[in-house]
Design brief:
Peroxisomal Thiolase, Chain A, domain 1, alpha/beta, single chain, 397 residues, 6-stranded mixed β-sheet, 2 domains
Length: 397
């Protein structure tokens, strides 16, 4: 096993993180707000609850994928909303955004350009904005309007929708509908078991939503839209593509997540449990063949573990972004890892996919679970648009 770390200097201070709940976009009070402004205010509140003065931050990394008003100003604007004027930048890579932002925060610390970096990821898929794109080469001045939903349904490299990629991959691996229904059923059980025992209370923060006049609009205090499901319900649903139904795929949602990345010394000073050390061990990315997006995360994981001289037996906690139950079934075929051991406290298949913060919330859940289990390596992985897979390994000791 390799002892080398990806970023030897960088650490994530335990407990200096938090996330909003992710309400489904049909039920979301966040549909009425500027998500960048909301998230800046939310991070300031979360830092206060965690006992971290905003003044400790000297840099900010944002991650989001859906355009929002004032996005041109990105991190400098959001940090001003937080009440702490610092520099920063914005990163975007579809579903991988939440993990890439954390890794970019660690790279900033490793470069010794800044010591304490705030990582803030967010997205609002509700009522997504519509764009008009100039095209001077055409006989028309502009092309048709488009929004984020158009992108979900059409990969310009293949012409296929994401749901078609899941179906194509399911057929390649000869998956059975019964297995993907069982995966979706278990994922819901895992989520509600974690919720009922209070696990989510360690990282999820209820947040108030205000109008522009400062009047209460609502409270985001639950993953609204998530319901218990039975095997009977899952079996009764119409197949939209091979092994894909409305119950075996994720749903669009809204939300934010944040954490800090800093040096080992500062992590001990900022964390409520300074004896816990969280290191970055490694990262890998891969691209599968066209329209085989669910296959890419497993390729990235195998590449990462091979590079580190490790295997899945060295992993204490495995979490993934699984927009389709197909992803988990394929991962088992690629690695031999039982999908029953994945996502023991919940996952995006259940609580939804607001893009930017999806993998950030998954990481926070994974780190909390590792602490609960007495430490160990945390594997985080997922797919992203363009048949891309990303994986990273963290050590909790």
């Amino acid at each position: 096993m390799s002892e080398a770390a990806l970023f030897p200097r960088a650490r994530i201070p335990y407990g200096t993180w938090g996330s909003s709940y992710f309400p489904a976009w049909q039920t979301s009070a966040l549909a009425e707000v500027n998500i960048g402004q909301f998230s800046g205010e939310a991070m300031a509140r979360i830092l206060g609850l965690r006992g971290v003065p905003k003044s400790e931050l000297d840099y900010l990394v944002l991650g989001s994928t859906v355009p929002w008003h004032w996005k041109f100003w990105t991190a400098p604007m959001v940090s001003s909303i937080m009440g702490h004027r610092i520099p920063g930048f914005h990163v975007e890579q579809a579903c991988a955004t939440g993990l890439q932002a954390v890794l970019m925060g660690a790279a900033t610390v490793e470069a010794q350009s800044h010591d304490t970096v705030g990582v803030l990821t967010f997205d609002r898929t509700s009522d997504s904005p519509v764009g008009v794109f100039p095209e001077r080469r055409s006989y028309e001045r502009t092309q048709a309007i488009a929004d984020v939903w158009d992108n979900f349904g059409f990969d310009p490299a293949t012409g296929n929708a994401m749901i078609a990629a899941a179906g194509i991959t399911a057929r390649k691996y000869g998956l059975d509908r019964t297995e993907t229904d069982e995966i979706a059923h278990l994922r819901h059980q895992q989520y509600f078991e974690a919720k009922d025992r209070g696990f989510l209370d360690r990282l999820m923060v209820p947040l108030n939503v205000l109008t522009v006049q400062g009047r209460p609009l609502g409270t985001v205090d639950d993953d609204a839209g998530v319901r218990q499901v039975s095997m009977g319900l899952l079996r009764s649903q119409r197949e939209l593509d091979t092994c894909v139904t409305s119950g075996t795929q994720t749903h669009a949602s809204d939300g934010m997540s944040c954490l800090l990345v800093t040096t080992e010394e500062r992590a001990r000073e900022l964390s409520p449990r300074p004896e816990i050390s969280i290191r970055f061990l490694g990262k890998a990315e891969a691209r599968a063949e066209p329209s085989l997006m669910p296959e890419a995360p497993g390729i990235a994981v195998n590449r990462l573990l091979d590079r580190l001289g490790m295997d899945m037996d060295d992993v204490a906690v495995a979490k993934n972004h699984n927009p389709f139950a197909v992803n988990d079934a394929v991962f088992k075929r690629q690695t031999g890892y039982d999908w029953e051991n994945l996502n023991r406290t919940g996952c995006s298949l259940v609580w939804g996919h607001p893009q930017g913060p999806t993998l950030t919330r998954s990481l926070i859940e994974g780190l909390e679970e590792a602490v609960e289990r007495g430490g160990g390596n945390v594997l985080l992985f997922g797919c992203a648009a363009g048949d891309v897979g990303i994986a990273a390994l963290f050590q909790v000791s």
